[in-house]
Amino acid sequence: GENVEQHPSTLSVQEGDSAVIKCTYSDSASNYFPWYKQELGKGPQLIIDIRSNVGEKKDQRIAVTLNKTAKHFSLHITETQPEDSAVYFCAARWQTAGNKLTFGGGTRVLVKP
Amino acid sequence: GAVVSQHPSRVICKSGTSVKIECRSLDFQATTMFWYRQFPKKSLMLMATSNEGSKATYEQGVEKDKFLINHASLTLSTLTVTSAHPEDSSFYICSARLGGGATEAFFGQGTRLTVV
Question: CA dihedral defined by A5, A112, A58, A22, rounded to 10 degrees?
Answer without folding.
Answer: -10
